[in-house]
User: Fold this.
Amino acid sequence: ILNVEQSPQSLHVQEGDSTNFTCSFPSSNFYALHWYRWETAKSPEALFVMTLNGDEKKKGRISATLNTKEGYSYLYIKGSQPEDSATYLCAFKSAGNKLTFGGGTRVLVKP
Amino acid sequence: EPEVTQTPSHQVTQMGQEVILRCVPISNHLYFYWYRQILGQKVEFLVSFYNNEISEKSEIFDDQFSVERPDGSNFTLKIRSTKLEDSAMYFCASSEMASGIAEQFFGPGTRLTVL
Assistant:
């Protein structure tokens, strides 16, 4: 059974502050690590697909790093804004088609 | 921008009834998926579908579940005889490819409530 864990489960951030949170996943049979941003009542939105150890990806104020040898990825939000409030999901892909999701980190940015 | 759509957004049914959840994947995508999230739990994979066949399924996807692509645009999930524990948010997703780097695009989900 694949275990993908995210921490913390939730966090409150003051507007303008930066924050980061973690996704841990199996370090064997790694194909890709996906990050999604999910707002309530909307479709989960793909942020990044990461495949290479040491990879760093950036989209606006959001960036992510990947360490496949130790099995973790960090997602960073720089200068948080209220519109960044969402649940951030990571999902591990091994051989096969399925994504195995973590439990998500719920981010609330307070004005 | 193309998107995955799902209908209905919310379905309430009685235990033992059949339900069909509908999805319209992105038009040029070839791989289709169903996931679900029981309240308070992780999103979990149910099934993937390619070339009119199931390509992978989880142990959750037992004989009570079936999937179909009845025409060129729709992708459906049928639950034959719903149980209380089938209550969940069901997500459809599609992708162009099945490789690790292929993004899976998700619909907004159907909330199924079994009474």
In short: The mean pLDDT of chain B is 94. The radius of gyration of chain B is 13 Å. The CA atoms of residues 46 and 62 of chain B lie 9 Å apart.
